[in-house]
Design a protein that fits this description.
135 residues; alpha+beta; two-stranded antiparallel sheet; 5 helices; 11% strand
């Protein structure tokens, strides 16, 4: 996967997250043409609280600020009106086997891009795809 200028902005903002959040560690990640995957680790010993609710709030704040930074930087380029989808999908990784499985999925997802509906030349399925995505 070769990143265009927008992908580079997404990449650069991602790797800067630990500079802004000292208790955040980044793991495997990839910038795709139409989405992003990343594993975020939270060092609870440095966090304000060890409560799960506070951890969820921290993750939401990290992702919110990441998306805002990417949006701001992309929209500085004339002619852009970039917007993310509203939320994000998160999952608590419970063990090393699951962590390695998710790492593998992220690493190899670029190989699946050729089959992605948004990358196909035949757009006949896109109307159904987008109607499901945005409803």
């Amino acid at each position: 996967m070769y990143l265009n200028q927008y992908g580079k902005i997404a990449y650069d903002n991602w790797i800067e997250i630990p500079d802004h959040f000292v208790n955040i560690m980044l793991d495997e990640f990839t910038v795709m043409p139409n989405h992003f995957h990343g594993i975020v680790g939270i060092n609870r010993s440095n966090s304000i609280s060890q409560q799960t609710d506070k951890t969820k709030m921290l993750l939401s704040r990290v992702i919110q600020q990441y998306k805002a930074s990417v949006t701001r930087d992309i929209n500085k380029i004339p002619g852009n009106n970039f917007q993310w989808l509203r939320s994000f999908h998160n999952r608590i990784i419970r063990n090393e086997r699951e962590l390695n499985s998710i790492r593998s999925y992220i690493f190899y997802d670029v190989l699946n891009w050729k089959e992605d509906i948004e990358n196909k030349n035949d757009n006949s399925d896109n109307d159904e795809y987008y109607s499901r995505l945005f409803t």
